[in-house]
Amino acid sequence: MTRPASPHPEQRGTDWLSGAGLRPTRQRVALASLLIGDGQHRHVTAESLFADVQKCGESVSLATVYNTLRAFCDAGLMQEVLVDGTKSYFDTNTHDHPHFYWEDENRLSDAPADQLEITRLPDAPEGAEIASVDVVIRLRRRS
Fold first, then answer.
1. What gap in Å lies between CA 32 and CA 142, rounded to an integer?
2. Distance CA 26, CA 28 (A)
3. pLDDT of 85-130, one tens digit each?
4. Residue pair 13/27 in contact by the 8 Å Cβ criterion
5. 48 and 63 in contact (C-beta within 8 Å)?
6. What are the C-alpha distances in Å from 16 to residues 7, 96, 125, 140?
7. DSSP class of residue 77?
8. Cβ contacts of residue 92 below 8 Å, gap of 6+?
């Protein structure tokens, strides 16, 4: 049995947007195609995605990239991973999983979730509940 050919990156991006109820505008499709067009998960910053879209010759402003990433997160297509107070990465894998942050390279990658074991969390304060737990493990190359 042969597998069907994977859709063209633009079609994959359009389907991704439509599945989340987002209107597939030209700029959204261009960004979505870069993010999930090859079927692989990606970790991007707004600046790195902006650079990628510029290389493709698309006319998209940095402000539009920021706004679109926010819309993708709000629609549940991506998750934002805060590395520190000034650096946000956006991940197309929305399942709960830990990350490695490579300090020397300013790069985020997935860490093996099956090796992470959290045995106990503190109780949430009165009137609050734990919404999620983000695990970012900072790495640097040995000297």
1. 36
2. 6
3. 778 999 999 998 999 999 999 999 999 999 999 999 999 999 999 9
4. no
5. no
6. 11, 19, 37, 35
7. S
8. 35, 36, 41, 42, 77, 78
